[in-house]
């Protein structure tokens, strides 16, 4: 459509020129004594247009001639800029491919090119950004080569370039340099140095996933279990791990934190500091109760922590794995001497509801044994030995039966029970 309109306009101009020039009888007379020159008006117009074109072309040629030195300077500047950017790209490529010596040399070559361009008045490129990236590439290569002095030198120069934080780009580069520094320091097994670098970050940057991952590693290396647990919670909230990995990580850190408690009061404080969903984890509840019992704490409090685990075992089919059920029974057995009436009722009700459960049979038998109900204890423990696998519970059941046989002066039964206890030892 546009081509058709241009064609119509050109056709109109041609018609107008033909009508004007075809019937134009005008003349132009030039008097140059003693001469007289008569020219047609059309010829004069053509000469004027031609003279204008020639003059314009001449002026353009002169401008191009005088501009050639400046163009040459621009060309040389462009060549240097291309060499500088090419050196930086080569350095990053060598760094990714594991050629750390070549990466450092290429980054330093880019820095040398930029330094030569910095004194040029025509150069107005991104000097700060390029220098910072080149310093970081050189520092990364030096870190891989274990050249800490050169790494720290380039790092300090990169931080000095972006320290003013004049704009958002400089601030991002400064934060990136700090993050890289924290990871390098962590590689050197300097947890306190890595945490100090992370503390220099703004609050928003410190909550980014890469910063939190670094903080988690540094806190675990420094033995700061509370800090590591809080960081792991944030990472799980940001979905930095899968649900299974996050659950396992939080559980492991909370277990380490529980194991660091040295008295019942400290253990209770740690337990109350856990999140409600963490206190519902069977592994943590079992570990806390077992730790409290070992520290000589209140057995009633330990059983209170175990109550949700117990309800899960007796109320939900396959709610607990066999290993966790065995641990729960072992922890409850350690506090059998102080077992109160409500817990005895719970054990009896659970056994009646599931009389074929070997663990409940064993626990009920041990409760009867502690209450000196010898006949019922012997019956329940004997039944449990037929279903319990080789392990601590079966060994303890046979030991209890051996002691009951010795009380009855049944030497043969006692010997057989002791033999089965020895065979049940894992």
Automatic annotation (TrEMBL):
Membrane-spanning intervals of the chain: 44-66
Membrane topology per record: Multi-pass membrane protein
Keywords: Cell membrane, Membrane, Transmembrane, Transmembrane helix
UniProt entry tagged with the keyword Amino-acid biosynthesis: no
Subcellular location: Cell membrane; Membrane
Pfam families attached to this UniProt entry: HemY_N
Top-rank taxon, per record: Bacteria
InterPro entries with a match to the protein in the record: Heme_biosyn_assoc_TPR_pro, HemY_N
Annotated ranges, domain HemY N-terminal: 26-113
Principal location class: membrane
Protein name: Heme biosynthesis HemY N-terminal domain-containing protein
